[in-house]
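Q: Given only this backbone (164 positions), what sequence would you predict?
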């Protein structure tokens, strides 16, 4: 519900966001998420989008996107004081950024990687994030941040492919 509220607010401002150049649109999305999504998710996703806004030109190439996503992942790592294999959104975003940078990414391969990396959080013990308070009880459950990152990446791929 928390993430839905934030992305519903983004959708409500869709016309205004689409009228902006890409960096400004990403910044607007990030600011909306910071304001509308509670808990740690709002600042983390806001950081992701605002870092992308700082790094991407108005008409990015795939190489620009790979570099920008890597920088955005680093910003999220710093903001959340987390790392890979901590059972967080980074377990999806980091591998996707790396995959985009290798030059052979397709929309399908990005979607599949995001899905497999979200699934890979199920057997992990949460080290960072809200789930870390569960300790051993976090094992056997997908991390919500990993799942929301997977869904966001799939939606971006769909949008870029014209599937909306």
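A: Predicted residues:
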């Amino acid at each position: 519900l928390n993430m839905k509220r934030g992305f519903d607010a983004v959708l409500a401002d869709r016309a205004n966001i689409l009228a902006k150049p890409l960096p400004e649109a990403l910044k607007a999305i990030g600011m909306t998420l910071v304001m509308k999504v509670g808990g740690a998710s709002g600042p983390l996703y806001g950081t992701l989008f605002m870092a992308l806004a700082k790094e991407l030109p108005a008409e990015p190439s795939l190489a620009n996107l790979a570099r920008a996503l890597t920088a955005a992942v680093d910003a999220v790592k710093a903001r959340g004081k987390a790392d890979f294999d901590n059972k967080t959104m980074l377990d999806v975003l980091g591998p996707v950024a790396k995959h985009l940078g290798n030059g052979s990414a397709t929309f399908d391969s990005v979607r599949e990687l995001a899905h497999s990396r979200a699934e890979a959080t199920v057997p992990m013990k949460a080290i960072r994030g809200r789930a870390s308070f569960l300790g051993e009880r976090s094992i056997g459950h997908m991390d919500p941040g990993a799942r929301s990152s997977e869904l966001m990446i799939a939606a971006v791929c769909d949008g870029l492919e014209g599937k909306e």
